[in-house]
Every structure is written in structure tokens, then in C-alpha cells.
Amino acid sequence: MDAPLQSAAADPLVASAAVALSALSVALSIAVAAVLVRGYRRGPGRAGILYLAAGLLLLTTVPELLRIGLPTLTGVGTAKRSILVSGFELLGLGTVLWAVYGGGEP
């Protein structure tokens, strides 16, 4: 028995658009990270590019999946979910900064 898509939004079109935009956000961030990893494998192998790819995934993909997955699959409340999402976004920003400013490379 399939359950219909339920949302707090009054208009099903709004709920469908939100899901589609979330899926697009995840797909694009994974695609950009894949391009970065491919560039790393082709080039001289600078670790900064891998840090950039990881930071991008932590900044965009993981928080988006948490926003959708946690309320769907668990009973985690709004406050805990917000803390987890913000934590991963900050970790992603830190990783991107590490990559940009050359942390760990001579």
C-alpha cells in the first residue's frame, strides 16, 4: 500500500517543486565533486582539489540529505536536525577554506 506524498505546504505543486529542487541541488553538487575528483586524478595529484570536493559535498549534499532523510526516516526533532545540518555546513565551509588557503600542502 503506497502512501501519498504528504507535506505541510497547502499546495502539492509547492511540495513537488521543493523535492525537485532538493534533488537537483544534490545531483549538481555530486556532479561538480566528480569533476573535481576527475581533475585530481588527471593532474599532478594536489590534495587541495580533493579537499575542495569533500568540502562541497559536506556543504551542500550532506545537509540536503539530512534535511530530507532525518524527518523521513527517524524521529529527530527540528532543533537537533538544525544543529546537525549547521554542523555539516560549517565543516564543509572549513574544508573549502582549508583547500583554498592550502592547508597541509607545502
Automatic annotation (TrEMBL):
It comes from the Archaea. Keywords: Membrane, Transmembrane, Transmembrane helix. The chain crosses the membrane at residues 12-37, 49-70, 82-101. This is Uncharacterized protein. It comes from Candidatus Halobonum tyrrellensis G22. The lineage of its organism: Archaea, Methanobacteriati, Methanobacteriota, Stenosarchaea group, Halobacteria.
